[in-house]
Amino acid sequence: MVAAPPTAAQVSNPARKFDDTGFPPRLKRAESFFGIHFDFHAGPDCTEIGKNTTREMIEDFIKQVGPDYVQIDCKGHRGMSSYPTRVGNPAPGFVSDPLLLWRQVTAEQGVALYMHYSGVADEEAIIKHPAWAVISGGGKLNKRATSLFGPYADSLMIPQLRELAGDYGVDGAWVDGDCWSAQPDWSEPARKAFREATGVEAMPRRQGDPHWMEFLEFNRDAFRRYLHHYITEVKKTNPGFQVCSNWAFVDHMPEAVSAPVDFLSGDLKPDDSVNSARFSARYMARQGKPWDLMPWSFSLKAAPPEKFRDKTAIQLQREAAVVLAMGGGVEVYFRQTRDGAIREAKDRVPVMADVSRFCRARQELCHHAEPIPQIGLLYSTADHYRRIKGLFRRDLAPINGTLQALLEGQHSVEVLGEHQLAGRMNDYPLIIVPECKYLETSFKDDLRGYVKAGGNLLLIGPETAAMFEAELKVMSNAGPDAESRFLSYAGKVLPIEGLTKAVRLGPGVQPFGRIRATKHAGSGQAPAASITSSGRGRIAATYFNFSEGYLKAENELARRFLSDLVRELFPRPLVEVKGSPHVDVSVIRKGGKLLVNLVNTAGPHREAGVLTRIPPVGPLTVIIRQDSRPAGVVLEPSGKPLAFDFTDGKVRVTVPNVSIHEVIVIS
Question: How many domains does the chain have?
């Protein structure tokens, strides 16, 4: 028999109790470093929630893992709450109130407690209130996405977040299914608001229709207002409640922070997580908010009938290392059982503890460190929003291959939007613009000014180059862009995936590599890239798309071509690393110390769902440019002093091997 949910009197407003000074202080999210995330998206099958959640289970987990915070499920995308809510839609049955127990134990232990709460995505709300749903362009009701123009936020979301903050005293919410669940909306309230805002009577229905881009941006702005509204309203009554909207102002929504979120976060792709972390961490580091990223503890690459395969501790440590190397915090996602208990606690808690120890050993070194500007790789907001079909979909193919090739060439790279480069382009010795079809006129003018003032600009792809033909001093040959060409470089030939364009170079322009019509020497040829001076700086471009081809077939020749082109423009980087292509280099600074992060990326992390071994890389030769002889060079977190040579402004050291993540510290 399933017990009834506790009554309001039984809950007895524990928030007041958990604010008492008798409990240890809990870190704010801005100071937090390591956490564990649990969720299970309660549904109609959940009739015994709380049955196996015990005080001993929670205490043992906290004792072994030692997290700064825990996030647990309270409402997933199905829309049923996994605690006995009085203002929302509870799951069918409860044996006890697990949220109350989690709050009691975490408060006693000084551990912050956050809620996994699904925002825009709420199926149960739509079942009970069909008028709250998004309507598609074809007039169909969306069964999962609530309308940004309806009463969902005020009628359900805000009251429930206030209940969690007030009745349970939780520290905040990690709102999932928010920006990435938002959809273009043709409901009558949305249509009316669009007509009033724009004066447009005929609603666009699909890409290519008049006012389509205007319609999408109108819907994006509706999400921004919704996000600002629900956070502001909850903070009016519960000012200490801390809120993050998953992926807002990050990969899915690459723009300046415009809502009062307390921190930024995102969950990495469950597979190929290293590359997911490489991109996201390099973008989040300059967003001006506390941030963390969440590796999944399991892979979706499983053999039927299994749906998941659990990852090993070393695999999760490496995924975390990519984040730590950019100064971020880490939380790891573990599944809960359908009654809300910790899944396989005896097996998985030791893995959590291993990952925690690995991260803690690097906390003092890396957390809140700032990247040192070297190469800035543009992630254009303007281009991204014109490229995607929806509101906040993620399409990283035009940039990810370029990023991966740069990192595999041991370049220290940041991923930056227009707003992050505004007013500080000159901080970066090299800016790379990858495969963009559109840039705002003012931003193109800023790039031109950057080059004339002495900067170095590399444009990837013929469409990007076409926006700067005058500065490149090239002229496009007549005829359409071509497919199925070949890159000829360093005596080798490589098939090119994607667009190429034949150009003629003006006087004084340096060609770099060749594009052939066939594999054979002497077939129709054109420059693969060019370099020329502009003012006090230099500008270069490739006349073929690079990124998607590299993603499909990582190739040493393609990587060498790009690295050599980068070195032509940026010959004196702060750090050079030689010895293996399987090591990422991140140069950051903290407390007056220069930190050279080396992350081992060896092994089949793109293809394999689960890794039981990561082969070490090394020895590595590391050259670090310094104005004066350093007081010392130490390899952390082991604390091992490194012998070094200092000649001609260069520190030279040898790192024997990197198992997962090592940091060279220059005092």
Answer: 3
